[in-house]
Amino acid sequence: MKGVRDLESIPEPPEKAKNAFAITLFCMEAAFDSRSKDFLKHAFDRYPDRDYLIVTQPHTVSENSLLQKFTLVGKKPENTFTHVLYIIHRDSLYEEDLVVHRASPHDIEGIKDLLETMEDKKGAFDSLYEATVNPDSPNLSFVCKIHDDVIGAFLLAKDVNLDYYKSHFHIQDSILLGEHERKGHTRLLFSIINPIFERCTRFILKELMRLSANTCLYFEIHDKTVIPTIFHELVHVRSRRFPHFLDRKWDHERYVAESAQQADQIPVDGHDRDPQDEVESPFALCFTTKRLLSEPKIIKNSRIVVVGASDTGISFIEALLSISYLQFTNIVLIAPGGLPHHHCGDNKAMNLKAASTSYTQQELKRLMLETRVRVINARMVDIDRSDKNIILHDETIIPYDTLVLAMGL
After folding, report:
1. How far apart are CA 138 and CA 336, in angstroms?
2. What 3-state class would DSSP assign to 332?
3. How far is Cα 188 from Cα 208, in angstroms, rounded to an integer?
4. 98-247+261-294 fold
5. What is the DSSP letter of 73?
6. What is the distance between the alpha carbons of residues 148 and 34, in angstroms, rounded to a whole number?
7. pTM of the model
8. CA atoms of 185 and 214, how far apart (whole Å)
9. Whole-angstrom Cα distance, residue 344 to residue 352?
10. What integer pLDDT is reported at residue 347 of this predicted model?
11. Among 218, 180, 174, which residue's Cα sits nearest to residue 325?
12. CB atoms within 10 A of CB 194
């Protein structure tokens, strides 16, 4: 399909390449909307030679119960199509047979096959294997299976350094820690799931927490961490900013937490981290809880375009992404040079300049906006309010439903 610029020039595909059919009209009385998923089985039975079913709808239309079974397909940067695309594979109908349980030696081969397409498959397999065969391992391994086929694998830590999380991240703003037992916290170390069953992620996470007897699950994102497909189910936590600019600890008396005193006795994940080190954490942190997983997220496909990577623009995007019950799928940030840390180095002498009063270079990196929104390195030169488009300096057209101008604010 290279070189295709319009619908008229698309060549007719060969018959063997036709592997999908589409929904062109779907109507359901509101009282029976929850039963719309029953239509899928009969639709695939009607086309036994097709593996995929697709449907498109305008950005501003909310998802119905039927689309909650579909996977939203991401757009290419040059795409200006006014609809969003959803797709579902016929094998996803087997989701009712999905089970999650602790990994056993019998699952080793299935796990190995699942990891075959990964770059670091050896490291991932070794970690899962050690947690599976060694009962004294500090980690727990789980598998998701459908009809004895492994379609997902997960690795959880048995315990976490909660004092470090509390001292370096604002987790108390999002979690009532007093309502959770100390042993009810775990960290997701590794996850992989067949893309066909991505929509089952929420159910899988609930099962993982039930089987591991945990109520809070954390996920750390380091510089080279591969963002997993379950990332959209997690909530980002802001890191704490320590009120000094010195590369040494403050000379004052410190309180040593009881859990820190027992760190040598209890092998926990991240036990070598000092909660009192007064150094900003080198990684970003996300989390979810049982309560959050029990509340369905509302998908918002509206095209939100923010012009200007100023403090106001970035904080506006951060505020949208921090809403735990909403998932924004189409946020675009337009700014010359992209995000500030893309064109400003880590030189501390440069960072003393008043380029930003709200975000440091490290804080911007840990917000991970590049993986959560679409960032365009460009300048806006005109606004077409009638058609709701903005025009960039290279004549690229970016459509919007909501436009936020935050240049220099």
Report:
1. 46
2. strand
3. 10
4. Aminopeptidase (3.40.630)
5. E
6. 29
7. 0.84
8. 6
9. 12
10. 55
11. 174
12. 18
- Amino acid present at 401: D
Cα dihedral 351, 356, 361, 362 sign: positive
Q: Which pLDDT value is given to residue 5?
A: 61
What are the per-10-residue average pLDDT scores of the chain (409 residues)? 63 80 90 88 93 93 88 82 91 92 94 89 92 92 94 94 91 89 92 92 94 94 84 89 61 56 58 82 91 89 91 90 89 86 58 58 82 89 92 90 87
Q: Give the burial string for 81-115 (b: 16+ CB within 10 Å, else e).
A: eeebbbbbbbebeebeebebeebeeebbebbeebb
For position 383, what pLDDT does the model report?
93
Q: Which residues make up the CATH 3.50.50.60 domain(s) of the chain?
A: 298-405
Q: Which H or E run contains 44?
A: helix 38-46
**CA–CA distance, 394 with 54 (Å, rounded to integer):** 33
Q: Three-state DSSP class for 103? A: coil
Alpha carbon of 124 to those of 128, 139, 271: distances in Å?
6, 13, 21
Beta strands in 46-134 (DSSP E): 52-58, 71-73, 83-89, 99-102
Sequence-separated (6 or more) residues with CB below 8 Å from residue 255: none
> Distance (Å, rounded) from C-alpha 22 to C-alpha 19?
11
* First-last CA distance in the chain: 43
On whether the CB atoms of residues 170 and 176 are closer than 8 A, the answer is no
Q: How far from 224 is each of 120, 121, 125, 220, 373, CA to CA, in Å?
A: 12, 15, 18, 11, 18
Q: What is the pLDDT of residue 355?
A: 52
**CATH level 3 topology of 298-405:** FAD/NAD(P)-binding domain (3.50.50)
DSSP string across 181-196: -GGGEEEEEEEEE-GG
**What is the predicted pLDDT for the residue at 263?**
45
